[in-house]
Amino acid sequence: TGIDAMVHAIEAYTSKQKKNPLSDTLARQALDLLSKNLIPACENGSRLDVRQAMLLGACLAGQAFSNAPVAAVHALAYPVGGIFHVPHGLSNSLVLPHVLRFNAPEAAPLYAELAEIAVPHASGSAEARTEALIAAMQQTARITGIQTTLQQVGIAESDLDRLGGDAMLQTRLLGNNPRNVTRADARAIYAAAL
């Protein structure tokens, strides 16, 4: 659920619909709190300071996406959860890096701004900082010990067409994405996550 909260912040910040200075401020503050405290919270759940920071970060991320709605990460995560009964946060985490990479041609400048928060040592072009953000999200998943591929949750290549079709039904989410997603794109994203 911690990574899901990070997705809320990231997608609110890059949403094509209703993105505004308030949602941006909430998303940036949320990502700052979440990226600094998720791993410490997983390593030592008795630390109330980091758990409080996670709670506040999740709340702020929720407020951010209540103003600027989520997009393709959630659109592709919903079928993974609905068909294969994968928990929502894990479903988001499994597709997150691949959706970010897909969106990079349109959203790299915004992802680079978020990288300054989540990966303060990242440098270089917007594309390089975007890759640093993607790598940080993947590393967070590995460190927390959750599954990192669709195969690890029982999804096979033969399932990808169905997932791609179901993702296309999430029109209320896909319309918020910085880059248009076709059924072929969705299938390719799932294939990358396999």
List the helices and strands and how they pair.
Elements: H1 2-14, H2 21-43, H3 48-67, H4 72-84, H5 88-118, H6 126-144, H7 160-167, H8 171-174, H9 183-193
Can you put this structure into words, describing what you see?
Helix 1 (2-14) packs antiparallel against helix 2 (21-43), helix 2 (21-43) runs antiparallel to helix 3 and helix 7 packs across helix 9. The longest helix has 31 residues, at 88-118. The protein has nine helices and no strands. The chain starts with a helix and ends with a helix. 73% of the residues lie in helices and 0% in strands. The chain is mostly helical. The protein has helices at residues 2-14, 21-43, 48-67, 72-84, 88-118, 126-144, 160-167, 171-174, 183-193. It has a single domain (2-193), classed as Dehydroquinate synthase-like - alpha domain (Dehydroquinate synthase-like, alpha domain, Up-down Bundle), CATH 1.20.1090.10.
Give Rg in angstroms. 15 Å
Q: CATH superfamily membership, which one?
A: Dehydroquinate synthase-like - alpha domain
| CATH class annotation | Mainly Alpha
- Portion in helices: over 70%
CATH topology: Dehydroquinate synthase-like, alpha domain
Q: How far apart lie the N and C ends?
A: 21 Å
pLDDT averaged over residues: 98
Short description:
With 194 residues, the protein is mostly helical. The protein has 9 helices and no strands. It has a single domain, classed as Dehydroquinate synthase-like - alpha domain (Dehydroquinate synthase-like, alpha domain, Up-down Bundle), CATH 1.20.1090.
Relevant terms:
194 residues, mainly alpha, Dehydroquinate synthase-like, alpha domain
